[in-house]
Amino acid sequence: EKSVIMSLFARHVTRVPSAFSSRRCFGSKVTTTASAASRLSQINASELREVIGRNKRAFIVYDETRNQFETSNLEFAQLLEAFNVNQDAISCIDEDQALQRDWDKHEGLFLEIGKDTNAIHGAFVHKTKRGAAAGGVRYWTYENLSQYLCDGLRLSRGMGRKNALAGLHWGGGKGVIWREEEHPYTDRCFRDTLFKEYGEFITSLQGCYVTAEDLGVTVEDMRQVFSTTRFSTCVPQELGGSGNPSIKTGHGIVAAMEGALAYHDDSLHGKTISIQGFGNVSQAMVRHLFEYHQKYQIRSIYATDINREVLSVADQIRNQEFAGVDIDLKVDIVPFGDNTALLREDVDIVSPCAVGGTLNADTIPRIKAKYVVGAANNQLLDDVADDQRLCDYERFYVPDFLANRMGIVNCSNEQYGRIEEDDAILRHLGKSYENSIYMMVHKVFGRSEQDNIPTGQAANVIADELMTHTHPIWGHRPWHIIQSLVKQEWHKRK
User: Annotated active-site positions, please?
Assistant: First the structure.
């Protein structure tokens, strides 16, 4: 079998021969001698469709108890190598190195080609002992397969940790739809078809993954997803769901700031905040600080954004909604990639709320603020090195998956009904619930201090411990669903 697998690597964009179309199992160590020029991780969306083949479905499943992979397509064995190969052996192949970095014994990876749009739909399942994999679906662009897979792998792991720290009985999941140049992605008819397809794909996975709204996806898109699957949250309010979670997410960032300052016997009183990105979450955060000014007594807020339309929002907050509130609010328009907001010298807290990767080797040494607390996902360009770098420069960083949890909290238990001023949601913003944002910031900072490790690592340690706890009623049911999909040859049933 090994010789057959190796012969396929050189032809990684051809379909699997029918003689080898059945499922194959591999131990955790899969090695080849393929060159960097022929790596599967470097192929584009069109080439991936060829690899997936006529079944239009593919999967990779990992059984941690047996330390064994199972895949629908033999060509994917090369990806398994990238997941496991020694770091030094792939240091010259960036795409494989990224896969090795972001794969964390994920339980499952499922792909499907849309029957009408030909789009590539994906579902990524991290650890599911706590419950079904849960996390939003994003619709975004990627240069190659490695970028596409890494986004799903990294974000599903982040969702698992976010859910665990929040005390939610959900595992880690992420949906990713590969947006290609030829997609008429602004056309409503195309989007309706695309997201109905995605809902059908999720239905086929039988509940091991529950989707929601994420980057590049709107509430209207989620309406289409919900029309073809019951395994969805962030459903429009008129259909019984929780709707847009941005408001509660903004409130959660304030709670994280409170927790970080209180750990050092301080408060938000008289503080200045600088926000990178003035979108929906940032606007909700600022409105909350204005509305409860008597409680927080923030002195000033500075923000930057690339969209000029936010200037009118800032003006409305400052001069209409809260005209009598004494907070100095200023918003500047900057070019994409500008880090002015993070590097201001006259602020106490910087809040990354735009794109990821803005905390890196270039910006961290120049950050003057003592605290870093924001809503953007994947704020650290390098999860390990930049986490340590923030610690070395004595900057107190609240990990993004702790601070920005309220999106998943707001929609996670829609199936149990909605209550006005719901304590199941509001307790995450308070100071008494053991898994509240405020209390968890204290636990993370305390673990960091106790073990002399960066705060991001401390949060990971706590979350990874919590992820080993099984669901109190259903146990590890999502993994049994995955096993059932494999046994039923899900990839042949489209």
Answer: 174
